[in-house]
């Protein structure tokens, strides 16, 4: 894979993919709508504060890379933009709905555990359980035209490893691509890890609900 995107580029593409799926009646996006989507306070990590000139500059660069194009329809008074990143007639990069949901959320929120991804992708695609998420992540790791994601070292006190996308270049070698040795060494540590996982899952569900409300109330 020879695609290498900046943080701002993955944010723009991720927002266009997200809005295409969640609010198709408002897609393609105007520059103002795209800027607002990039700067959302929820479902974004890191939170950005981009102005329209910066977003336009990013879009112009993505147009030159053939990942975004300007969509002008009859009666349209402002330019609107749509992605050509994947699943279009303009390129060979194709993802299943579940693969696309994971890639989109990794673009929008950075590295996440399978449990977090299951919650955060609820508006984009459907997973029956965390095992399905792990299976799709494994597909993205092993795809012949990839890999597109990489498993990170498991953090101390965490029960799940996080996964990161590889569209911004290769990550440093991770000797814990298998399991890390640093795990909670006692029953108390195990209980803390379980509580942290439950809190993370609840926070993800609240974020998904908040974003759903924002999408439903958007002008």
Can you describe this structure in just a few lines?
The protein is mostly helical.
Describe the 3D structure:
This protein is mainly α. The protein folds into two domains: 77 residues, Arc Repressor Mutant, subunit A; 108 residues, Arc Repressor Mutant, subunit A (Orthogonal Bundle), CATH 1.10.10. The protein is 46% helix and 7% strand. It has seven helices and five strands. A three-stranded antiparallel β-sheet has the order 1-3-2. Strands 4-5 form a two-stranded antiparallel sheet. Helix 1 packs across helix 4. The radius of gyration is 18 Å and the shape is globular. About 9% of the residues have low confidence.
Described by strand count, sense and barrel closure, the largest sheet is: 3 strands, antiparallel
Low-pLDDT segments: 175-194
Strand content: 5-15%
Major β-sheet strand ordering: 1-3-2
Distance between the termini: 38 Å
Q: What keywords describe this structure?
A:
single chain, 219 residues, mainly alpha, Arc Repressor Mutant, subunit A, three-stranded antiparallel β-sheet, two-stranded antiparallel sheet, 5 strands, 46% helix
């Amino acid at each position: 894979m020879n695609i290498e995107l900046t943080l701002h580029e993955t944010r723009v593409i991720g927002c266009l993919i997200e809005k295409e799926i969640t609010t198709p009646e408002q897609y393609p996006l105007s520059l103002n709508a795209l800027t607002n989507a990039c700067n959302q306070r929820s479902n974004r990590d890191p939170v950005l504060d981009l102005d329209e000139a910066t977003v336009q500059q990013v879009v112009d660069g993505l147009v030159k890379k053939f990942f975004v194009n300007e969509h002008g329809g009859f009666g349209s008074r402002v330019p609107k933009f749509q992605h050509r990143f994947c699943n279009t007639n303009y390129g060979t990069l194709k993802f299943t709905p579940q693969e696309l949901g994971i890639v989109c959320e990794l673009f929008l929120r950075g590295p996440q555990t399978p449990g977090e991804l299951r919650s955060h992708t609820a508006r984009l695609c459907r997973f029956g359980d965390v095992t399905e998420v792990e299976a799709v992540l494994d597909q993205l790791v092993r795809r012949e035209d990839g890999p597109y994601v990489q498993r990170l070292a498991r953090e101390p006190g965490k029960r799940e490893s996080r996964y990161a996308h590889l569209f911004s270049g290769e990550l440093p070698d991770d000797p814990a691509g298998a399991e890390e040795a640093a795990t909670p060494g006692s029953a108390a540590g195990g209980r803390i890890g379980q509580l942290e996982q439950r809190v993370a899952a609840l926070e993800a569900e609240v974020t998904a609900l908040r974003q759903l409300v924002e999408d439903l109330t958007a002008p």
